[in-house]
Amino acid sequence: MQYIINNAINLGVNYIDTAPSYGNGGSEENIGEVMKERRTEVTLATKSKERTYDGTMRSFEDSLERLKTDFIDIYLVHS
């Protein structure tokens, strides 16, 4: 999967959108492996299905960890 993400960036993709529910967190983990080295090359978006402050913050922190970054450019409400 990381080969595909790296190749997409090499070919000019500069926006990546994911969510914790995609692959039960696996999507964020795969993207995170690439973001360790290439974070500045893309606009990164993820989202939360949570509807409370505490739930959203927990989801946000978990996403930061899986994505191996300290910031997310766009954070959306899912569904």
From TrEMBL:
**Which InterPro entries did the record assign?**
AKR2_Oxidoreductase, NAD(P)_OxRdtase_dom_sf, NADP_OxRdtase_dom
Please give the Pfam families that the UniProt record associates with this protein: Aldo_ket_red (PF00248)
Q: Where in this chain does the record put each NADP-dependent oxidoreductase domain?
A: 4-78
Protein name (Swiss-Prot/TrEMBL):
NADP-dependent oxidoreductase domain-containing protein
Q: What is the lineage of its organism?
A: Bacteria, Bacillati, Bacillota, Clostridia, Natranaerobiales
